Amino acid sequence: MKIRTITFWVCQIAGWGLYSAIGVSAGVSEGGRHISILVAYVLFFAYSIALTWLLRREILRRHWLSLPVRQFLPRLAIASVITGSVQAALVLVFNMVLEHSGPNRFDLKSIPWLFIGVNGVTAFWTMLYVSVKVTDHYRHAQYEALRLQLALKESELRVLEAQINPHFLFNCPGPSARRPGPRTCPARP
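and the corresponding structure tokens:
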């Protein structure tokens, strides 16, 4: 497995795990210790990883990052809002299913804040992922430019060597014409 893939999954697990741990901690402090809070956040952790992985897959599959900025930013924004809204809707669905075994944490006033909060975190995830990918593309382009410059310099050096070698071969006196004294040309191979 590539190091970038491993890094992606470590960041996914750490990021959504930290967010879920904070949610469990806040839920326990507000509503007491209920297994439904832990189950809800374990489910949130799982489907958040799955949904953001799907978002990443679509970004890569559709080559959005190779598009001009004015084309890929709206696509990313819409995809991020859809992903975050699905996450928030799943929070509500699982809360309704689990509400019988624990406290109901949502009233009608808190639902918009849920959508805003989850969409904000998903937007942050999207910006972070895109900034890492764009930086990676930029570094790769710089590496390729430097590699091409090096190849150009090496070919220029070979051309100069090819021009110099015949000069020495044809302008050096042969073995029978050598005079005593210091050499002025390199010896023939």
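(Above: one complete record from the training split.) DSSP finds four helices and no strands in the chain.
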